[in-house]
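Re-run with default settings, no changes from the original entry. Doing this only to confirm the output is reproducible before filing.
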Amino acid sequence: MSAIPDSATFTVQPAPSAEPPSLSRLEWKVVALALREASEGGCRNVLSPSRFRHWLSRMVRAVTGWEGPRPLADPRLETLRRFVCTSRWGHGDAASLAQILLQQGFNQNQLRAVAMLVGR
C-alpha cells in the first residue's frame, strides 16, 4: 500500500507558485519524531484515542509509570505528526489530515515530500 493517498481520495492541485518542498527545522523534527513513534508502535495512541484506550493507558501509567506520547502543543505540528503516523500505518484518515494541513498553510509539494519520506 502506498503512503501517498490515492487520487480518488486526495486531489493534488498545482501550487500557486513553484514552491520547493521545504519545511522548517522544527517541522522536520516533528516528522522525525512521528517516524520514530511509528517504528516503535507509539502512534497507536495518536491514531485512536478511544475511551477504553484512555482508561487502559491510565491503568498502565498507574502500575508501571510509563506514559504514551502526548499531543504536541502546536495544533499545526500535531496535525503533521498525525499525518505522518496515519500515512506510515496506512490508515485512510491520511487524506483528511492532508486537507487540514493544506488549510493550515502547508503546500502540496511539502505534503508530497513528507508522504514520500514516510513511504512503507
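The chain has a mean pLDDT of 77. DSSP finds six helices and no strands in the chain.
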